Amino acid sequence: MANIFEFNGFKPVIAASSFIHPNATVTGNVIIGEHVYVGPGAAIRGDWGQIVIEDGCNVQENCTLHMFPGTTMTLKKGAHIGHGAIIHGATVGENCLVGMNAVLMDDVVVEAECIIGALAFVPAKTHVEKRSLMVGNPAKKVKEVSDDMIAWKTKGTALYQALPKECMDTLKPCEPLREIEADRPSQDKLFETWEKVKNA
User: Fold this and answer.
1) CATH homologous superfamily for 3-144?
2) Where does the source fall among the domains of life (predicted)?
3) Domain spans, the chain
4) pLDDT tens digits along 172-187
5) Which of 17, 59, 12 is nearest to 37 (CA)?
């Protein structure tokens, strides 16, 4: 069971097809749509305002989602939030990628199909136009996101959209083995799946 908390009368609303890792925390006025993956260590804190995570998003390990009082932060359909990213009161558009350890500050609006590079810092009130690739601190647009880039992003996100069901079916607490089994399987199948997605 994930760490799901009511706060000040608000209970999170989480679609049954979504998976919240038991080591993630979801608090208060949070609305999570279908086929969303939330990884371990993620903190989604809707205590002072609302957090909306639309269908098909993923919020990976150690991400933080929060906001200033009285505001709403939104991840639109298919938003892909990389490990350790912080989204504070921003709106992330449909089918965007936010790279690892990037920070998006309050009232940032990122339009659809953008890529925010790893470690980028997007200052408050920045408006990021559709299909922008943003990098640096402060983040600046360096180029347009190409069709090939957004296709790569979309296919990678599809793996995360399949992950909730896989976690529901196979993830369980266990005692560690003390030795490697003689017949331990390889993960070639996972690599093949990624290659098929990447090259489709």
Assistant:
1) Hexapeptide repeat proteins (2.160.10.10)
2) Bacteria
3) 3-144
4) 999 999 999 999 888 7
5) 59
